[in-house]
């Protein structure tokens, strides 16, 4: 059961880049809410608009139309105090854990900085204790890593530091943009498990952005499928993936190697001649919404 009020929401947000012929609608009337203790996966191919959605949430971009709401309040009207609270409450974990950490600074520095900025009442002993707590929270041994520099850690360990840094300010929302795509396959599962634990233990709301449906299914309860700036299908993960209704979602699923799928399972197979047609049609504006299950919706595309 989803808590009715989302912590954070995009409400009919449109973002357009460029002008005239060069115009790209990177987000077309997108709406979704993030709820405490739940993960929403935003899935789509390269260029579908996933990072634009993340940047709108991080307020790096401002909507051309529509609103960003935090605890029901439009952020467009927030005062300086409201914006500060938002910046603390909403944190991001990036794809590349190496470039998001400063190579010249120790792990201690990376965690100390947000604590100094956002938890000013802590004295140095309390800060030290908090850094150790954060490292244990992301399943790293403080003694082993605190004095090290990013290059002395593995990719998976660095991503754990990025997550610890995001957690340092007690966020309510974490936006994770392809957090495992640059990691070895062998350490991906550990990071996904950690995100799952953070959601359960700390009750954060997670937006998990990926092109990989398999990992989306592993971490998220809900899914949105995005194409050409539109969310074409969304709802409960199992409902959407077991019974996809939008031709574009079926196309995405047909490309996923699934070890559980039998060779004679042709449910999502799509004729090659249909693929271009689906992409062309799915890219057109689809203003209508159709409910196809309890918690399952599509924007039907023209035939
Ligand atoms: N700052 C910008 N200026 C102009 N066009 C942009 C800008 N940012 C994104 N776009 C365009 O908007 C569309 C969506 O881009 P976006 O980066 O959001 O996609 P994405 O799904 O995150 O892709 P990827 O998985 O490759 O990161 C693309 O066509 C992109 O070229």
UniProtKB/TrEMBL annotation:
GO CC term (a single one): plasma membrane
Signal peptide annotation: none
Molecular function (Gene Ontology), one example: ATP hydrolysis activity
Entry keyword RNA-binding: no
Record's bilayer topology term: Peripheral membrane protein
ABC transporter domain mapped to chain residues: 8-253
Entry keywords, A to Z: ATP-binding, Nucleotide-binding, Transport
Keyword ATP-binding: yes
GO biological process annotation, one example: transmembrane transport
Localization, UniProt: Cell inner membrane
Pfam families the UniProt entry points to: ABC_tran, oligo_HPY
Family note: Belongs to the ABC transporter superfamily.
Protein name as annotated: ABC transporter ATP-binding protein
Naturally occurring in which organism (per UniProt): Devosia oryzisoli
Phylogenetic lineage: Bacteria, Pseudomonadati, Pseudomonadota, Alphaproteobacteria, Hyphomicrobiales
């Amino acid at each position: 059961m989803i808590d009715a009020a989302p912590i954070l929401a995009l409400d009919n947000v449109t973002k357009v880049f460029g002008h005239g012929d060069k115009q790209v609608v990177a987000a077309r009337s997108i709406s979704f809410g993030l709820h405490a203790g739940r993960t929403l996966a935003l899935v789509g191919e390269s260029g579908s608009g996933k990072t634009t959605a993340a940047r709108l949430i991080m307020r790096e971009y401002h909507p051309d139309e529509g609103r960003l709401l935090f605890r029901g309040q439009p952020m467009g009207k927030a005062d300086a105090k409201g914006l500060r609270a938002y910046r603390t409450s909403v944190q991001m974990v990036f794809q590349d854990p190496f470039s998001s950490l400063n190579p010249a600074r120790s792990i201690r520095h990376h965690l100390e900085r947000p604590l100094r900025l956002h938890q000013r009442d802590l004295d140095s002993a309390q800060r030290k204790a908090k850094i150790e707590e954060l490292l244990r929270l992301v399943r790293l041994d403080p003694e082993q890593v605190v004095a090290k520099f990013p290059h002395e850690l593995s990719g998976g360990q660095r991503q754990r530091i990025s997550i610890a840094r995001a957690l340092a300010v007690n966020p309510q929302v974490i936006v994770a943009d392809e957090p495992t795509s640059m990691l070895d396959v062998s350490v991906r599962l550990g990071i996904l498990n950690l995100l799952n634990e953070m959601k359960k233990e700390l009750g954060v709301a997670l937006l998990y952005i990926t092109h990989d449906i398999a990992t989306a299914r592993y971490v998220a309860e809900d899914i949105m499928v995005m194409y050409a700036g539109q969310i074409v299908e969304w709802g409960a993960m199992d409902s959407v993936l077991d019974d996809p209704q939008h031709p574009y979602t079926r196309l995405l699923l047909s490309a996923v190697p699934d070890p559980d799928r039998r060779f004679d399972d042709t449910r999502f197979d799509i004729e090659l001649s249909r693929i271009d047609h689906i992409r062309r049609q799915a890219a057109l504006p689809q203003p209508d919404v159709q409910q196809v299950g309890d918690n399952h919706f599509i924007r039907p595309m023209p035939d």
